[in-house]
């Protein structure tokens, strides 16, 4: 007698350390190493810059704690896509997922791949002609790792997170204990004439904190996600916030705000060579390369899960293929491959940085809707027992909503053309959604 076919499911094998490493790994990319001067220039002084990092961290923590409550109630694969579908309807869930899988996710992966190729080229003195092949090759190698069972990608996330924290720790330790500059000095010449203001400085830090929500895409692969996801999101954001503050203070203590302003993006490489010599510069470059690789791994591991979840709901063309899980690895190999193909096209023909920036407006629009969703679910299910409740309700969700509205308004004011393009990208998904819905009827 033939045995009934057992449906292949995602492997629920990721524990707290894996989830925590993915949160930290997908947040800490290259921003903390290159954004120090930009934040100081916009804020107008070292003290204001540190306050901007703190404010950005607190807003991100408020957002993370709010999403953590949703994650504890909707521990499904797809993260934001699943929350939007559950709280509102399939239409809004589809649009949030569409934007992430078609442009936002692949563009972020492509941008990381392109920057990694530049750093590798500088480190090994490779002709810039090879930047695009190196970028595509790096993306494909990390993608290949994630075709294997998720424990390999998770282990890689843990290793790269530990490695990327080494240069972070070095900057903190040498700055705090061996730096002699006045970290909080207000005497920075010529900054105020070009300063964008405290709000713009805080906006820059919010982008440096972006990526914390991606671990929620793995809700179907995390052990006891109702408890683990809130812990990983909240603890990961707190660790990153403290690290960012200490790195910024350490940098200011090492060379002072005036020198940071003068050096711009070269401030941290300058500190590395000053404190450790030429070897220090090389070590820092390796640390940044590992940081980018780890960040890319987290994004390649998480974004295809949104595509898989949408395909499983038959909301995408070729849904059968995109929702396929390999029986041995239990990973959505076709969703991963398509994500890599889109990223490769972006590396070859588009400005991936600009494409990812275009989606900031819409991702924050969906963030606001998700934060409001906490109030909706509490009203809809007043007697439901929650494994995790956002602390200081309703203050914390209101802070998250206010912070996201600040980003949205800032984007509208600073990049209206980009906002229109961003909305256009989302609008392209509407006919796809209705075509798939009508086809199923």
From TrEMBL:
Give the membrane topology. Answer: Multi-pass membrane protein
- The protein's predominant localisation is membrane
Check the record and name the Pfam families matching this protein: AA_permease_2
Bilayer-crossing residues are: 14-38, 50-71, 91-118, 130-148, 155-178, 198-220, 232-252, 283-308, 329-349, 355-377, 389-410, 416-435
Residue stretches in coiled coil = none
Gene3D superfamilies with a match to the protein in the record: Amino acid/polyamine transporter I
- Any one of the GO CC terms: membrane
Look up keyword Kinase and say if it applies: yes
The protein's UniProt keywords, in alphabetical order, are: Kinase, Membrane, Serine/threonine-protein kinase, Transferase, Transmembrane, Transmembrane helix
Its localization reads:
Membrane
Q: Any keyword Protein biosynthesis?
A: no
Q: Which domain of life is it from?
A: Bacteria
MF (Gene Ontology): L-amino acid transmembrane transporter activity; protein serine/threonine kinase activity
What PANTHER family has UniProt attached to this entry?
AMINO ACID TRANSPORTER, SOBREMESA, ISOFORM B
The identity of this protein, by name, is Serine/threonine protein kinase
Q: Which organism is it from?
A: Fructilactobacillus lindneri
